[in-house]
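Issue 218. Parser rejects a valid record. Input:
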Amino acid sequence: MRSQFMCAAAVAVLLVAGAASAADKPEFGEIGIDTAGMDKTVTPGDDFYAYMNGGWMKTATIPSDRSNYGDVARLREQSLARVRGIVEAGGAADARKFADFYASFMDEAAIEKAGITPLKADLAVIAAVKTPKDLARTMAALERKQRPFGYGSPQPSFPVYPYVGQDAKDPTKASSELVQGGLGLPDRDYYLTDDPKFAAARAAYKTYLTDIFTLAGMEGGAARADKIIAFETALAKVHWTRVESRDADKTYNPMTPAQLAAAAPGFDWKTYLDGAGFGARPALIVNQPSAISGFAKLAAETPMEVWRDYLASRLINDAAPILPKAFVEADFAFHGKALTGTPELNARWKRGVGATNLAMGDAVGKAYAAQYFPPEAKAKIEDLVGEVKAAFARRIDGLDWMAPQTKVRAKVKLANLRVEVGYPETWRDYSALTVVRGDAFGNSQRAAEFEYARNLADLGKPVDRAQWWLTLTPQTVNAFNAGSLNKLAFPAGFLAAPWFDPAADPAVNYGAIGSVIGHEISHSFDDQGSKLDEQGRLIAWWTPEDLKAFEASTGKLAAQYDAYQALPDLKLNGRLTLGENVGDLGGVAAALDAYHASLGGKPAPVINGLTGDQRFFMAFAQSYRTLMREPFLRQIIATDPHAPGQFRAYEVRNFDAWYTAFDVKPGQKLYLAPADRVRIW
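Output the parser choked on:
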């Protein structure tokens, strides 16, 4: 969604219950760097990522139930195990409720006994769709019961997705928004590109649709699948690209319901908006107007028979993980094996933890934070954030391309940046959520309806900057810049080395967690964050000259990433990953300055023959070590605004200090002439 800037780079929060004290040995090596994971036969200037991670890459393996593996995945496994202990222990009030939710998911016998009975009521409603009004009413009703967008899905389930966001031009107010969606494959390119890998994905999708229709007792699955794929291909043609959908200016399109109906004829918008809870709203923010109008045209042109099959496919697809084993296996054969190359379905308890986190993440997170995130951890990370913020402010002062008046406002924005560490200030109230032990399907739908109603209730109220999103909980292994809320969040799930180790050398911690803190701060000034002022408003506040200089530098950075070859037939999309790459560039710059400032004017100590700057850059590169299966790599390059870890580590080639630290010379593969190094912050 437009207001979210999610960063896949995990950050470690400094201490957890039982973690090493500063006097103990670091988790990795003698100083916090996994020297055994290096490959010193590689010249740093030829491939700094391989130099730091080549040894690890030769010995590490991707677990059979994962599409990728690295330290982020390792910490996520740790978080899953901790949450499992919490939900299995149960307790009173909310704890009893999330324990029942988890236990119901784990009750395979009850799920098998129920069979497809839980689907029948909704399938009957879909079968009764005969008119455009029926279609609009049914789609809105199904939206309320589907798993919320943003959790385990690259896009919304239906062609139009309603949600309550934040008005980008008046960030104190909640806005009702519509965004494109509805594709069963990860992205429009999977339908429209002749790439043989995408053609194979389309074939696997047909098999999947055929299988789930058969399992649901609906005959002629293959013919239904062909019609659905033809419909979705037409839908994909009107979809905006991922790059276009990142643009905060282009996705801000206020319309009254009457204007929407006029701009997108063919769909019964009044019935739909009434059903979605937006009918009384005077205006809506339409994120991708031409995609929404294209959908509406398809709505009128598509036979109701196809619509009924399409709606049924979306319903069954979303429900598959909580249906009998045959549905689960079909779901995994497509989403796991075909799309990401993962050979083995992960353990049921892990899937149960994921479902429980989605349903009652805040309640689980409250118990998680109490058990694993002591107050001293919060204080220490806040201190480090303060140091990196101060360094970023100094870098703003030193810019030669930004006008003085813009610098003043940029520093006010930086000062206004809210930082939340570990857990939210207030917790969600789940008393209105009904959980019935033994009713996994019903619990899932009720949890989705509860979240939808909670989100809808935000309309008409001032925006609460302290509120965390559904997919952001204390147990989350991720870091966030919340766009127009002008805040950062570092959940307690970021718990360990290599990002922060209290026993590690300070240079290592600045290079790892410091760079990611700086990365999150930089998002407030990246290609989209720079469009939001010190109040979080979408408004032009830079001078034309500022923008021209900034766009010239970001254009060079996009071109740099466009040139990276991920596979023999596949390069990165530098425009799609631009925001994250700008974040990395600014993050490293601010963290390196903060490290230098921490030395108090004294030279950095040389440890094990390594200078302070060497240790800093080594820690940065090692924090991105990742293995990916090829299908998953192809999917994230098509859909993810983050470059694969290898290429994020190459950001070092834009820093003069890296060249000095590792004696990088012309002719080496990563060498850039000084004029070609991108310098923004």
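Fixed in the parser; the record now loads. Residues 148-345 form a domain with the Neutral endopeptidase; domain 2 fold (CATH 1.10.1380.10).
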